[in-house]
Amino acid sequence: MDSFELNKIIGAILGTLLFVMGVGFLAEAIYHPIVDRGPGYALAEAEAPGEHGGAAAEAPPEVPLGVLLASADATAGQAVSKKCASCHNFGEGEANKTGPGLYGVVGRLIGSHEGFAYSAGMEAHKAAGDVWSYENLNAFLTAPKSFTPDTKMSFAGVKDPVERANLLAYLATLSASPVPFPPAEADPAAAAAAPAEGAAPAPDAAAAPADGAAAPAATEAPAATEAPAASH
Ligand code: HEC
């Protein structure tokens, strides 16, 4: 083997090394490894409550219960009530099971079904004179343990607001004289009035005199006379 042959071999080895290193440098230049950024993406379970899941869960409650009830379907609610039937009877005068009978529950004093041994939490609601209004039922059925922390009702809750409204509409039928639904308008008005309080008077006061001056609209009159009176 002469030195020329040896040079070729060494040259080949060095060339290969150079090529491998070159590829390494090139790869590093193209793909920057990113450190300290945590997981590539948050798994739904971990981040959902604050983000997408939260948004989805928060949006429906903004539809007021009265509005949901106005379009609720009692027949669909009866199907939902199958989830409850293992523990509750729904018929008039039927026996308590694991849970108390639910005939006539809407409007009933909480924890007041005869012959049922309620949890201390339900007894406390009863002592406070709380009744099963649609709002209370809605809150309880969303998350029983949030409404009554020590409740004996081992049931996760009905998470879908529409499904819940249907269920409430069904419960409403379990009575000789069903309790009327809360008005569909009440909540949005209250919700709109509350945040607007600070800002509303100015535009209102500005608009009211204009209305009064332009046209003596009978329907606008009470508002028009009230608003200037308040600003005087
Ligand atoms: C695993 C059994 C179980 C299931 C399923 C269940 N409940 Fe109950 N429920 C109970 C028990 C037990 C109580 C008594 C709670 C207490 O004393 O804290 C109760 C209490 C109640 C009350 C309060 C009644 C009163 O007289 O104050 C209502 C309303 C109610 N359940 C509705 C429902 C509805 C609607 C469903 C179905 C969506 C349901 N429950 C599913 C066991 C159950």
Task: Give a verbal description of the structure.
By secondary structure, the chain is mainly α. It has a domain of 117 residues: Cytochrome c-like domain (Cytochrome Bc1 Complex, Chain D, domain 2). It contains twelve helices and no strands. α5 packs across α9 and α7 crosses α9. The protein is rod-shaped and about 110 Å long. It binds heme C (HEC). Heme C binds next to α6 and α7.
Question: CATH homologous superfamily of the domain at 57-173 - what is it?
Answer: Cytochrome c-like domain
Strand content: under 5%
Count helical runs.
12
Evaluate the radius of gyration.
Answer: 34 Å
Tell me the CATH architecture of the domain at 57-173. Answer: Orthogonal Bundle
Low-confidence stretches: 47-51, 187-232
Secondary structure: number of strands? 0
Order of helices and strands: HHHHHHHHHHHH
What separation lies between the terminal Cα atoms? 113 Å
Mean pLDDT: 79
Oligomeric grouping of the chains: single chain
Helix content: 40-55%
Main β sheet profile: none
Task: Give the names of the bound compounds.
Answer: heme C
**Derived structural class:** mainly alpha
CATH class of the domain at 57-173: Mainly Alpha
- The outline comes out as rod-shaped
Write down the CATH topology of the domain at 57-173.
Cytochrome Bc1 Complex, Chain D, domain 2
